[in-house]
Specification:
CATH architecture of the largest domain: 2-Layer Sandwich
Oligomer: single chain
Number of domains: 3
Strand content: 15-25%
Distance between the termini: 29 Å
Shape: globular
Structural class: alpha+beta
Radius of gyration: 23 Å
Helix content: 40-55%
Length: 376
């Protein structure tokens, strides 16, 4: 049975549509908003007045006149709300206050924890610290976690590298802070960040492949994060590539940055730093470059499978592996190209994210903006 839209639902939809239009346009007049949204001028006027009262929108000067009075331009007030964002990475937890344009207002960086209880306490301490620095109204709390997340339940079903299982993190945070809380897989958050704050692209589809200690693919289809039926879409790091007796080798255990570095240290000694490994590879140190090349080829084969499955033209890499630059991209692209039809390979572009180490934090901010304001 179809449910009839109520007046409240229509008003909420129209308000989000107007706010998103102003956000996307950066600066736009009321008349332009009416033309873009196909809403009536009185409706636009009422919604804009409400948004100005909430400080979400401000009048930002005058536009060019077209025969009459100069129009008043509207813009989203980026600091009307701040968002608490946490990147619960494999090796460290990072957190920040982010505004509505993706600017980092304040951040802190405590170490990662080894147990669920300790990890939750670190997140509490971190958020408490950031809360003391902000007098701006908060829109919500967003967390990016490496693993399988059940978003609507706020549960980390499984985070292998953190050894988390069925952790009700969302409910714990909601109970403590009385704010909306949204959880996301970290690679999916990275993809949403790239879609929202990254370089402009001519498509509503993209894949962000985050390569660090773990490996994950965040997929955006028609502007929406793709979760999969069991919330595990993009968990490519756990693909089993080899079995040796009872020993199982996954993609991330062979091609993750930590795995590469461990293999390099086994050859060159434990004093080899990550930076030293990069330098040796770039200078053509044959044994160490072979480790890097094998990892890149394994990853490229998997990327080829993603291209064949989704036919998405924009593949973006983020994470520590981007320290290798074009050398990495060339190996991965060559392996991916051999995996798919020439036409599909020719139409696919590879790029490095420009968002750096903040990409998951920004993805958490984008998720809150999407869910609470409908901006994204």
């Amino acid at each position: 049975m179809m449910l009839k839209a109520t007046r409240h639902h229509i008003k909420q939809h129209n308000t989000r549509l107007v706010l998103r239009t102003i956000y996307d346009a950066t600066a736009v007049s009321r008349a332009q908003v009416a033309r873009i949204t196909h809403l009536t001028p009185p409706t636009i006027s009422a919604i804009v007045s409400s948004l100005i009262e909430e400080r979400l929108v401000v009048e930002a000067g005058q536009g060019q006149p077209s025969g009459g009075k100069p129009p008043i331009l509207l813009a989203v007030n980026a600091d009307a709300r701040h968002i608490l964002c946490v990147d619960a990475g494999n090796q460290e937890f990072r957190a920040a206050l982010v505004n509505l344009r993706g600017d980092i207002v304040k951040q802190a960086q405590p170490p990662a924890a080894g147990t669920e209880k300790a990890a939750v306490q670190i997140i509490f301490d971190l958020l408490d610290q950031l809360l003391t620095t902000s007098e701006t109204p908060l829109l919500g709390i967003g967390l990016g976690v490496p693993g399988i997340i059940v978003p609507e339940a706020g549960v980390v079903r499984e985070a292998v590298n953190l050894d988390w299982h069925d952790l009700p993190l969302g409910k714990l945070l909601e109970a403590r802070y009385a704010l909306p809380v949204y959880l996301s897989n970290d690679s999916r958050a990275a993809a949403l960040a790239e879609f929202t704050f990254g370089e402009p692209r001519d498509s509503q589809n993209l894949i962000v492949i985050k390569v660090g200690q773990g490996i994950g693919a965040g997929i955006v289809l028609q502007g929406e994060p793709f979760y999969g039926d069991g919330y595990g879409a993009g968990e490519i790091g756990q693909l089993v590539l080899r079995r040796a007796g009872k020993q199982v080798h996954t993609l991330e255990s062979l091609a993750g940055t930590h795995a590469m570095w461990q293999q390099a240290q086994a050859l060159a000694g434990t004093d080899l730093t990550w930076e030293g490994f990069i330098t040796a590879v770039s200078h053509g140190h044959a044994p160490l470059k072979q480790i890097f090349t094998q990892a890149g080829q394994l990853l490229g084969t998997t990327v080829g499978d993603l291209i064949a499955a989704y036919n998405i033209h924009h593949i973006i890499f983020s994470g520590r592996v981007t320290d290798f630059g074009d050398l990495f991209a060339d190996i991965v692209f060559d392996a991916a190209r051999q995996r798919v039809l020439p036409m599909m390979a020719a139409n696919t572009t590879f790029a490095f994210s420009t968002l750096g180490t903040d990409i998951v934090l920004l993805g958490c901010a984008a998720l809150i903006m999407k869910e609470e304001l409908g901006i994204i």
